[in-house]
Amino acid sequence: MPPSDEDKRKRLTRMPRHGAIVAVLALTGLASSFMFTLVVPIQAELPELLGASREDTAWVVTVTLLVAAITTPIAGRLGDMYGKRRIVLVLLVLLIIGSVIAAFSTSLIGVIIGRALQGAVVGVVPLGIAILRDVLHTSGVNSAIALISATLGVGGALGLPISAFITEFADWHIIFWVAAGIGAVCFGLVLWIVPVSVLRTPGSFDFVGAAGLAVGLTGILLVISRGNEWGWLSPATLALGLGGIVVLLIWGWYELQIAEPLLDLRVAARRPVLLTNFASIGMGFALFASNVVFPQILELPVETGAGLGLSLIAASLVVMPAGLVMMVLSPVSGRLAGVIGPRALLIMGAVALVAAYAFVLIAGNGVWQIFVSNILIGIGIGFGFAAMPMLIMRSVPQSETGASNGLNALFRSLGTSTAAAVMGAVLASSSTVQDGMQIPSAAGFHLTYILAGAGAVIALLLALFIPAHPAAEERHPSLPR
């Protein structure tokens, strides 16, 4: 007689201490989000370092965003089917391999391949959240979920000064060796501490659905990330954009026809899930806008009239508090969600993001103003990112946990990718040439604040329409109502 779900849960409770499991999964989340800011300190120097054009070296960043967005929902589904820990280990192996390839590379192709493999590791965050739902059965589940979710913002903010320090005083290849070392440590800890997944969804993997999602998303994300350089009305942009939309529409129809889809779109279309995912785009947009805009303002020379003249390391220290605040707020977010509910927590996060951009618009672009704004952004993302997986998981069956969290991570990635493209286009259109350099104007920076604040406002409005309580049949006993 096969073991019941209750027997499986009892087996899980005999695994290592919950605190150790949470700590290891949080470390893997930090490692994955670190990949987004890993090459920021050398981004401007990549054409010289790799002997390629600036347009070509942009793929070093673009390919990571593309692979991260595509693999997160696929990895989530694989985790539901074949074991979440197993897929986490596979993703960490890809991180290690990609880091080693990039570390040995002196050409553009090698670095792009390495960065693509690094991007796949972002799937460990939704998988980690799903593992917590399987393993934890106490009131601490909310704080643990908040911590893991916050790592999507924390790792990038804390990793930037580390990358800046390494590239300032050592060969740029070292940052990839450090990434490989972090991946190896995480692999060993996950293998040692995280229990083997015993709560699995039987069935076959939807390879056609995975291919369709990958092709459709690639077209859309390429337009978002590269449309500014290619021209928004160029044949390549239009073909990729329209082609991606058509493929996704066909993919959605196909997913509704088969018995075992990659993503159950009927579950994804539930009002709480759908509104939370759309709000995730606005939250991701507001977060990544600050990652794009603030470092530029801080590092541009004072003589340009728009910059503050800080070094890369000093600038990274000014923006780092956002990540520290997210980390500190994680346990608070979990307890708050248990008292006021995740919907109210998401609303609070969106309000904090609106306040952050309103503050710099009103108070100005000084160092201390950006410092304060980053603290408010840390509060907003700390609350918002903690609330979103709780809202998702209280509204989906346990068999869909990994895939649904992966889909939510995909929507966040759409927000971050869109922010990078929009902020880049706005700043480029407002730039003037000074001493052979394109320098964005102060008016351009102000417009980016308005657009980022608008993204936060949209997230706030969507959060207001999320039902305060899930339907009784959708509730999970360990998650806030």
Automatic annotation (TrEMBL):
| Principal place of residence | membrane
Report what the protein is called.
MFS transporter
Q: Show the SUPFAM superfamilies listed in the entry.
A: MFS general substrate transporter (SSF103473)
Enumerate the subcellular locations listed in this protein's record, separating them with semicolons. Answer: Cell membrane
What Pfam families does its record include?
MFS_1
Q: How is the protein disposed in the membrane?
A: Multi-pass membrane protein
Q: Where, by residue number, does the polypeptide cross the bilayer?
A: 20-42, 57-75, 87-106, 144-166, 172-193, 205-224, 230-254, 274-294, 306-332, 344-364, 370-388, 409-427, 447-466
Q: Which UniProt keywords apply?
A: Membrane, Transmembrane, Transmembrane helix
What is the top-level taxon of the source organism?
Answer: Bacteria
Provide the species name.
Answer: Microbacterium pumilum
Q: Which CDD domains match?
A: MFS_MMR_MDR_like
